[in-house]
Amino acid sequence: MAATPNEVRLRVRVRRIAFEAWDRLRNLTTASPARFAVLVFAALILLFTALFSLPAAAADGQVTPLADALFTAVSTICVTGLSTVNMYSHWSPLGHAITYIGVNVGALGVLTLASILGLVISKRLGLRAKLIAAGDSNPLRAHGGPVNEGQTVRLGEVGQLLRTVALSTLVIEAGLTVLIYPSLVIGGIDPLVALWEAPYYAAMAFTNTGFIPNAEGLTPFAQDYFLLTVLMMGVFLGSIGFPVIFTLWRHHWRFRLWSLHTKLTLITTVILFVLGAGFILLLEYDNPLTFGSMDAWDTTFQAFFLSAMTRSGGFSVIDIGDLNGATLIVGSMLMFVGGGSASTAGGIKVTTLAVLALAVFSEAKGRPSVQAFGRRIPSDVQRVALSVVAWGATIVAISTVTISRITDAPIEYVLFDVISGFATVGLSTGLTAELPDPAVYVMAATMFMGRIGTVTLAAAVAAASRSQLYALPVERPIVG
């Protein structure tokens, strides 16, 4: 039966609307990769919220409350590791599988994963796909305007970077699994159960998430220094960032050929790791609830382990709520800095701290520009670093005040858990599991903004970049 004129017009109209929507989406990916990233992350969180809400995902076969399902989805996709439910007992095998898949998708980055799939299918990347993937490899590309290609990973190298991301993720997680499995079996885990717990631990270490697949957590393995060292290695490799792994893969240990980003990331990471362990050791060595009953070697090792985990790892062999208040502040500062850019870690990033420290040093020395390793750091990078700190501090402050007002909990506990959420660390004083629903939603929003990144978030809400063809008169306000 032939279609009527009205039906033909309706079909044409539907097709036109569909084509216009598709064209707008395609333009959004290049004109504003930041807004596209926020949109995709939000859609993915909604999808995993629905999956976690399934009765089959819960161990008791009941529908998980919306607040808990949403929070778990955000914590999974944002590779945070905080939870409002017992991750071991609440979820069924399906729920654990959803968690495993979610942390790997969230760790790679939605845009990076999409580009990898496109590369596998088409064997090559077009300009549009390269621009999308580049937005994940460098937050400075989050806007839609022209980009200076003097970056860590140039646009022409994006395809190689994506191959490095996919290969390094598979190889590192597989290697960690092989190393972790014997320790689990020796520690009393059933060999068949260890077959899924080992890759679960490996994924949680490399993605810097920190979820635990058993009832007692890492407590039974508190003296297994081999297992704890392997977990630290996984956290470190995940936190340095894929551009750094890419550079190390290309140039190995030839320091002179490393990019400035790689040098700053690794040096700052090592410095913070050592300093953090030193402060934790000094503050906790006589605390009977944490390290006070340990000998010198155990105390030193556990201080380094906790220092590594506060960078974004999320694993812990002690009760974080038993730490001294001063140690919680030190841990909060370490978490706020986080790991490397374009990594599975959160925080303001170590390169942000390095750039600001170099700017302060240059100002104290009276230098006209900020320099490091024979390179000059342009002023736009310094402005972005300052913006990241300002946005991050604002988000943390607002969330801390809001949750503190809702719960009336001790401020040091609230601050620690909020920064842990913002920096996608996953350590908790025990406060998060007891939050009422309004505070749960605030914490979920904090985790989302922290994972998206302050640069991407700012670019997403800002108007498109505009060129200015004139300069305003200069006037210097009094500063300091």
UniProtKB/TrEMBL annotation:
One of its GO terms (biological process) is metal ion transport. InterPro entries: Cat_transpt (IPR003445). Pfam families: TrkH. Keywords: Cell membrane, Ion transport, Membrane, Transmembrane, Transmembrane helix, Transport. The keyword ATP-binding does not apply. The chain crosses the membrane at residues 36-57, 97-121, 161-181, 225-249, 261-283, 333-361, 381-401, 439-463. This is Trk-type K+ transport system, membrane component.
